[in-house]
Amino acid sequence: MSRVGILSAMTAAAALVLSAGAADAQVSQGGGCRLAIETAADEWLLRYDPFDQDAAQQTFDLAVVNQGDAPCAARTRVDLRGEAFGLARVDGGRRLDYVLVEERAGADVTPRAGVSTRRLGGRMLDLAPGERGLLRFSLATGAHEIVAAGRYTQHAFVNLETEDGQPLAERPIALTVEIPRVAVMGLKGEFRRSGGMATIDLGELKEGARSLRTTLYVLSTSGYAVSVTSQNSGQLRQGTSGWYVTYALSLGGQAVDLGGGGRLEVASRGPRFDDYPLALTIGETAGKRAGEYRDILTFTVAAI
User: Fold this and answer.
1) Number of C-alpha atoms within 13 angstroms, CB side, residue 199?
2) Which CATH architecture has domain 3-14+182-303?
3) pLDDT for 127-186, tens place per residue?
């Protein structure tokens, strides 16, 4: 009786696109209190890898100066000017939720209804004439499911207002979350792990086609490529001896070239959740010496 083991190891690769921008501050006036928002960036950019992070968060600052001749007391509100709530890609698709918090006041200023809720009481920004202050905001996002790679943006206006809602200053900000092209893979079904590798026991070696009760799965924010290499170039070998049995591998019904480096490519502009049941076709076994035959397969996934 002959027995066979196949060992599989997996690695992953990913790509990241970075971008940012800048714009001038805007100033408005209210009585002897005259606030100006001073900042170097008009985009708050947050990078989020859904396979590496449950959620992502980053802080951003707005510098504010009182250019008037009277004290200023201001609250923060965020207005979307009619845009639907949620970060969106230029080419459309589902929007990505986010949370925006003004840390100094501990206030949630997320404009879920198109404008953040006006709040009463609590800490305000108080500036004497000529005094400067700092407003710190935290932008956070997370996804309950995988979303497509790309830049998701919401155009918002950060407003400073008096206690009764009179405008003092305003600043347009692009809230942006960038999701990279990234893919991960794994195995599910019948296999066991040994030394960090997955082992599939084929039992008695019999000639012909057979499905394995093991599936390779791929999760990706974009298209991807799966490469497969065989240590023995598509042969199950008995140790260091010259005895071997040829075999062929298929992923989800697609044949893989184990002799020259098999590769499976999937083009996509959206997220992917793909399963590939593994199957083998065993070559001639008649006249082979009894013993254990094995090969090592290495699966690699890379986002494209």
Assistant:
1) 12
2) Sandwich (2.60)
3) 999 999 999 999 999 877 889 999 999 999 999 999 889 999 999 999 999 999 999 999
For the chain, how many residues are written? 304
pLDDT tens readout for residues 258-268: 987 789 999 99
Tokens of 169: 């200053």
**Arithmetic mean of pLDDT, 83-104:** 93
Rounded-to-integer distance, Cα 154 and Cα 158, Å? 12
Nearest to 101 by CA among 85, 87, 117: 117
d(CA 56, CA 175): 13
Say if strands 197-204 and 99-102 run parallel, antiparallel, or are unpaired: unpaired
Beta-carbon contacts of 98 under 8 Å, excluding residues fewer than 6 positions away, are: 86, 87, 110, 139, 140, 141, 154, 175, 177
Question: Bridge partners of 96?
Answer: 87
CATH number for the domain formed by residue range(s) 25-180: 2.60.40.2040
